[in-house]
Automatic annotation (TrEMBL):
This is DUF3501 domain-containing protein. InterPro entries: DUF3501. It comes from Polynucleobacter campilacus.
Length: 194
């Protein structure tokens, strides 16, 4: 899969005109690619379009048009574009109450390494988390983690042939899984595979 390049981005002016349609598509795409693991863990499976939208939004908000600033955004978000043999996801641990969130983040240390996907008939694949920088300490985990799930050719073949995909967590403090993804969510994820 190709990465997003400077030449493929819209100018600030062009993006301003296209933004309403771009934003609406991003909302729909994000909803389609979101998997809730219970009430407190949300997985957003990223793709090229969502990262392109994020880059365009950051450039718009920061009014960035200098080459260096654009490159910074590309370098920040391109690592979240799937490479054709993997899924990339943002995991968020969400508790509305700050006190509850603080307690949960202390209890869930290491959760980012206990998130898995499992293609029907294949072994589980655990997330490779936070490759850019460590987001957890011995005392608490972060509320946001970035992860990659590497797939074998057999897993890709099975998914393309219609196998189901389970998404789950086996951290002792938050055992949870979604056994069956909606077909449209699964189809969107499979479209990331080359």
């Amino acid at each position: 899969m190709a990465t997003i390049t400077r030449d493929s981005l819209l100018s600030l002016e062009a993006y301003h005109k296209e933004r309403p349609a771009f934003r609406e598509k991003a909302i729909q795409e994000r909803r389609l690619r979101t998997v809730h693991l219970g009430d407190h863990v949300t997985m957003i499976f990223e793709n090229e379009f969502l990262m392109r939208y994020q880059i365009q939004e950051m450039l718009r908000v920061e009014k960035t048009f200098e080459e260096e600033g654009i490159e910074d955004e590309l370098n920040a978000y391109n690592p979240l574009v799937p490479g054709g043999s993997d899924f990339k996801a943002t995991m968020m641990i969400e508790y509305p109450n700050e006190a509850d969130r603080k307690v949960a983040l202390a209890k869930l240390v290491g959760i980012e390494h206990q998130i898995f996907i499992e293609v029907e008939g294949q072994p589980r694949v655990y997330a490779i988390a936070d490759e850019d920088l460590e987001r957890s300490t011995a005392e608490k985990t972060s509320a946001v983690h970035f992860m990659r799930f590497d797939l074998t050719s057999n897993m890709k073949r099975a998914l393309k042939a219609g196998a189901q995909l389970m998404v789950g967590c086996d951290h002792k403090g938050y055992p949870m899984h979604v056994e069956t993804l909606p077909l449209e969510t699964l189809a969107s994820l499979v479209s990331d595979l080359s």
